[in-house]
Amino acid sequence: MLTSPILSDDHLLRALLKDSLNGLILYQIVRDETGRPIDFRYQLVNPAAATLLGASQEELIGRSCREVFPQGEELRHYYKLVAISGQNMRVDYQLPHDGRWFEVLITGQAQETLLCFFTDITERVQAEQALIKNLTLLQQTEELAGIGSWDYDRSMDCFFWSEGMYRLFGIESGAPVSLQTYSKSAILADQPVAQRIVEQLTTGSHSFEEVLRIWRHSEVHRIKIKGVVKADGKEQPDWVLGICWDIS
Question: Distance (Å, rounded) from C-alpha 234 to C-alpha 95?
Fold first, then answer.
């Protein structure tokens, strides 16, 4: 660690604790007679962390983590793992009393101490949860309506297929798909249609609509395919989005 000719390491740490927008706590490890870590005593607490704990910095210094934060047994479990192993750890933790999520970096320090950094990630977690919820709703809707959705990234030559697409084409969920999937699935008479779809996906600049007859579980099905080129103001669009449904 770089030191200042004016400020000691302790003063530098205190300055960081004071000015950081994230929560920072320095704990003294408390061990039993066998050397097992059993608790953690507050040595330094910055204002952001004190606010999270609902107390002033002065009220926290020297007190036990179990006493101040009795509901934090899960978090103390991670503290103990770091105290025993000496290996730093990064975990996501939800505060029991208000539901906020934090990324917690736990680092072992000299003189039997732990330095912990708390970063609020509530918005990120909520966005991830909303995405999962929306994907679940999409899957349920597709299953009920018998449709599938897809997007194709031209720059990466990469497809994303929803679960509904795999069902429509009779392909195992999660199996790799590519532009060739259309020609492989199409009946012989519809190979020209499959080729037109590929051309629209790779170089087309307008919306398109095709009906492709495919083999699915030894039966012929008529699949309607609609695609929209997502330009975003670019001369050469990178994305094509679309849906499919069975019109047999």
Answer: 44
pLDDT digits (tens, 9 = 90+) for 209-242: 999 999 999 999 999 999 988 865 555 668 898 9
Q: Per-residue pLDDT tens for 180-204? A: 999 999 999 999 999 999 999 999 8
Domain termination residue (choose one: 123, 158, 183): 123
For residue 43, give every residue at least 6 positions away whose Cβ sits within 8 Å of its Cβ, in sequence order, or none.
Answer: 26, 27, 28, 61, 62, 113
Q: What is the 3-state secondary structure (H, E, C) of 37-49?
A: EEEEEEEEECHHH
What is the distance between the alpha carbons of residues 66 and 69, in angstroms, rounded to a whole number? 5
Residues 145 and 117 both lie in one domain? no
Decide: 69 and 62 in contact? Cβ < 8 Å: no
Q: Which two tokens stand for residue 152?
A: 């194709």
